[in-house]
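Protocol step 4 of 6: structure prediction from sequence.
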Amino acid sequence: MPARQVEFSVVRSIPELSEEFCIELSTDPKSGADVCTIVVECLKNEETSKVTSKMEAELRTEYKITPVKAKRVVDKRGKKG
């Protein structure tokens, strides 16, 4: 799933999203599975759940991806001390 495809076919097709987005690639430490997280910014906070549903549907249709429940905050910092 190249970033350019996601940009034009999903992110840019949803008017409630800003034009800024980030694709994060990581590995699930428990399963070892590759994980692709698309981080987007909703222009109006009150529309977040509507936009989440829309984006999940677009990803499912366009890429046959089954999104998992999104975490609102992901802390990737290493533990200190």
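Step 5 (inspection) to follow. The mean pLDDT is 77.
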